[in-house]
Amino acid sequence: MTAKVLFIHGYPDTHRVWDPVRAQLKGYDTVAPDLPGHGRAMPRGLTGTRWDLAAWLTAELKKFSRPPHVVAHDVGGMVLHSVLIENPELVRSWALTSTTHPDWPWHHNARVWQTTTLGEAARDEYLAYPRKYQVIGLTEAGVPAAHAPVTAEYYDRTMFDAGLAFYRSSVYLGDWWPAEDAELPPGLVMWGARDRYQTPEWGVRLAARTRSRFVALDSDHWWPLEQPEAGAAELKRHWAAVDKN
């Protein structure tokens, strides 16, 4: 029996970012929940810090009767690092984009969000724009034009505040970088060859660290939207190898 597949999105996204990939996976049992505060209300007691998201993902994984394959992008990939370190037994296999390398410097937007007052000013400025200008801004940030209106529809104050909480708790992520001798489930590192936020070299380092296969797709940061067919094909190849063992 093939394991189920859990997809975890990033920021500022919802589960909808996975729709093109999941459409290529007919016959697979896939689940794609929204991160807390992303397209839905923030659950009581959570704020969106990286520790909140790690606890949430751990709880989601414990709902499965058998460990699922997990595919994670962007912030979701960073949070998955925590689970792989703390609870690897909950994961059948993993595939992710975005690392927690201790030397990686955060990109410009993240540094703004991590800064008190500047982050709130960026939030308020964005939310004050008419929707068409929000869409333009998201497109300029790399969100594919066809998907930017969908992102803008759900990128509200709740999601922005969740993002501020995550980025401010994540100035340093080196404690989530896997140990060199870590016993991890089988992994796949998938990356956009032109990723503007984390260049592929970071993915190459992660693949070497975890003894995993590295794949560069012909895309910018949002490979699930830009290369869903190629990404799904690599995932099928990865899962087939894992499930054969």
From TrEMBL:
* Domain AB hydrolase-1 residues, every copy: 5-232
Record-linked Pfam families: Abhydrolase_6 (PF12697)
Q: Which InterPro entries match?
A: AB_hydrolase_1, AB_hydrolase_fold, AB_hydrolase_sf
Source organism, top-level taxon: Bacteria
Protein name as annotated: Pimeloyl-ACP methyl ester carboxylesterase
